[in-house]
Amino acid sequence: MAETYLVRYVGGPLDGRVDTLDGVPVDPRSTVTHVHLHGGPKIVHHYDLHYALEYGCEYRVRES
Length: 64
Hints:
Elements: E1 5-10, E2 18-21, E3 31-36, E4 43-53, E5 56-61
Parallel strand pairs: 1-5
Antiparallel strand pairs: 1-2, 3-4, 4-5
């Protein structure tokens, strides 16, 4: 059975979100983009891979 791999998000609208994957991604993305389309102007947040550990990785919102 594969180990659980956690992807955590810190800051911005995804703060506190944790995604659980069945295994370690071969090549984790260096940046994740989140786009708001909630009835107002489009708001884009970029999350950068901050560090990776055996149990998972963490994406932190990019400061403008």
